[in-house]
Amino acid sequence: RMLDALARIRPKKETNFIDSFRQLAPLLRKRALVIIISSLHDGSQKQIIEAIKMLKAHRHAIVVIAPFEPWFEPIQAKERLVKAVADSAEEKYRKDLDSIASAVKRFGVSVIPVGPQDMAKASLQKYVYAVNEGLATI
Fold this sequence. Notes:
single chain, 6 helices, alpha/beta, 3 strands
């Protein structure tokens, strides 16, 4: 239910990852598992990496669940031009997400792209993994 409710939120302005994480860090007094649900599409790659480094400096375990936006708005186009543009946008989105995922992987951060059907499953699997590794509690 929570993930469904989050999927329905319409942002009012662009995400500022650094400011958001700066506000979050003092609230986490102990080492924590931080699950970020974001397409990572609102911020620059540099800003996202700096924000994640800020949380990692406090030794938090971080997982990014990245809803893959083209999956959330499937194109049922019969026109080849519309389909080609949609395919091109999806390819660019994937490349951008892969680039960010590669950049934050060196900090031990996983970026998991998900569609609407596998969002809950992927989130739960990563949480169970974190519990088994001692990074989270039940």
